[in-house]
Design goal:
Number of domains: 3
CATH superfamily of the largest domain: Multidrug efflux transporter AcrB transmembrane domain
Strand content: 5-15%
InterPro entries: Patched_domain-protein, PTHD_SSD, SSD
Shape: elongated
Strand order of the largest sheet: 8-7-9-1-10
Keywords: Cell membrane, Glycoprotein, Membrane, Transmembrane, Transmembrane helix
Organism: Caenorhabditis japonica
Membrane topology: Multi-pass membrane protein
CATH class of the largest domain: Mainly Alpha
Main location: membrane
Amino acid sequence: MKKHSHNDDNTWFVKIIHWFFEKCSAIVCYCPWTCMTLTTIVTLVLSSKIPFTPMQNDISDFTPFGAKSRVELETYRQFFDNHGEPKAIYAFITSKHNDNMLGISQLNDTVQVLDKISRDFYLKTAHGPKNFEEYCSGFCLLNEPVRHFYSGMLISGQHGTDFSHLDLGYPITTVLGTKLYMDPNFFGVKVASENHKIESVADRNIRLFADSTKQVPNNIREIALVVLQFRSELGDEVKPEDLRNYEHEILDYIHEDYHSDHINVYILTDSFITEEIVRAGLSLLPFLAIGFTIMATFSSVTFVLSAYYLKQLNYYKIVLAVMACVCPFMACGASLGTMFFLGFRFGSILCVTPFLVLAIGVDDAYLMVNAWQRITCQRRKEGRVKNVKEELKHRMTEMFIETGPSITITTITNALAFGIGATTPAAEIQLFSIGNALAVIADFIFTISMYGALMAVVGHYEVQEEFKNIPETQSETSSTNSSEPESQKQLEKEKDGKFRRLLMKTCTILTNTWVCSIVLGALAVYWYICIVGTVNIKSELSPNKLFLEESNIVEIFKQRKTHIIPYYSACWILVENPGDISDPAHRAELERMISAFESLPSANGRYSTKFWLRDYEDFLRQSEDIDLPLEEEEEEELAIQFTVNGSQVVTPSQPFGKGNELRQFLEWPEFSFWKGFIQVNVTGEHYQLTKFMVTTAYHGNELVDWSNRAKLLNEWRNVADQFPSLNVSIYEEDAKFLDLIETMSPVAVQSALWTFASMFVVAALFISHPPTLFVATFSILSTSLGVFGIMSWWGADLDPIMMSATVMSIGFSVDIPSHVSYHYYQTAKETCDIRKRLQMTIEAVGFPIFEASLSTSLCVTSLFFVNLNMAQIFAKCMLLVVIIGMIHGMLVMPVIFALLDTVPKKLTSKTSRKNESTVTLVTIVR
């Protein structure tokens, strides 16, 4: 058997790769069935963990580690640590008729929903089942304004609206002398102004209710959305599964059993969000089966056509085609199972991984099969080794040595790209990157151990059939040769000649000066478009992209974006060190702090602030004027008027103990709801304030863009930092996403730069020729830039999903340029003619690249039929990588190679002509 001596001009790394694959070839040829059996057993064992691993998703996993929002969330949780974990259930209610909730029927059904959720569903606790009214603590009365407003509607309908104690207005509603703030419950409100115009609350910067503006009585004309909040703090005695079951009972009733002719009800809970993310991930699985079927069918057709053309057709080609798609799935199952055995969680984003690994795996299989068929054709022409075993080993070794470096370089670069993605400061992106990196490495191993062994089995059959059909004496005597074999050989030679002439004409066109100029001009336009798109891409977020379009959560997010965010973006202000509130000067400092928040440009103003200290100040002022009754006069009741942030209430008087005002304040029935906003240490009958929180709201149509909300969040934080002695912190429910916005651009740029640097280093390990290395790196950069820029023009924003897809795109963009540049580099050992080199390169990788590109495109096309934005982002990126990569590999790279070959020749030609002229001149002078 001929020794492989073509390693001499390769880099030291390629020589190691060749040595490695020679050993692998020997092993898979020696014991192919053992290799396949062991690989199958390992896959089954490791994959068995997958069906028993439940999906676990937390929407905050996209938040960067070390983000300020994580600290703020922990501070918020610690605020309630003496009561338990803060939990909330929201009911979003809209009208089925004219989108207006301002109607007796709509509000009647709303109050029925409020009563149903508050009283008819029971949470299992250590002290027995309890409904919301029984287990809630500090926030039991958040929805009472809705109930009172409905009562006012009933009174208004029966007796008219000319009572001074009845004003169904916004933001303040007065019912029976009690003033209620409706802004936390009513959204998308339109009111009548003093000039009798109907205006949205958001119009004119929400100055309809400034301190100098009087609220028009009964001014509400439209309510688009009513929100009910069921907030509570649950201790350790409530098990997570019991809470999930409780929330599920509410969800199931509203979604399946509840019916109303007047309203739509949407329930939002933490467990529902998690389940919907899981459902979105699972929705990909049927399309994975569709994608596999498409790819397996396409592979079978192309394998059969190529084998038929090369006179190597047998039914085993179908087996190879199907297994080319099965092996990536096996590798994916083994790698994900390993992760779950190691304790990694099963995030729904990992459902995209099989699609990615399938695209990579079939590419390697196509290269191997194509190389085997070309080597077989060559061996048939050159003559065979008489021993079937030796012939098989020779062909397998040649095949592995030819394709091994290409397979290795794509594996290393993809693994590195995902490895760098694993360094991003977001748990979800880390999980996605680690899963893909492990799957790519596993696919490399399975390509050798499983697919290589299968090719050895099929190859043994093919070689054996060849030896059976050709007499042993045919190679020794010419007398036995018939005219039929000679005519067949002549026909095959003519076919081969036509194909090569066509290829040569194509390469001649590619090296034409005019064609090169046109391609470079088109490339310049392409770069301009992509750079503009990349520069203008916007860092933006939209959590609803994680859910299926038909999910109720998408509708909830839509209602929030339309009716809540522009009108009432709530800010929770937590004061950890309130100090001595008995000191008027210190209370004035607290008031200055809150006023600083209310003075921001987008603040709704004082009316939207829920600040207990203002009621407490009124309480103190009026309590000083109370004349306590004598014991014999106890039958007489004195009335005191207080304000709840300006709302008037009437309550019976009670005696006050000196230094005990805070306790009396919180025990007063009309002020008991402030207990949810205040934390105290109780010593006997004395209450010591330890911390408190305040809520206020902001507005602006620009807040529908998350980037603008991120700016507002930073404004809040800047105000909080101005009062270090009070230890003020901010809590915003969406801060975990908003913090990601500022980090996405620098993290994406940093990841891209590190990835490109890694790609260059890896390419240098395989290619020692600087011009070829430059072309490969340029193509990778150009492909990645194209994906990023075109995705921007396609409407994509820079969000966590897009960041993950970007990491994937950079890794995938290496495949085609690396195959083309490596094979082009190898052709220098056989010829210096540029057209011949391009022809040999296209012969080696052209058909596999086309085959892999088309099959991948067909596979990912199925993802466009999933109503899930995450799936469509990945599908678009993969489609662009394939198309742009193939154009670069088959058109741009050959043109640049031709130019790099032409320039030195022209320079040499000019130099030689100059030298000739000099010699001629010297001769004449002589």
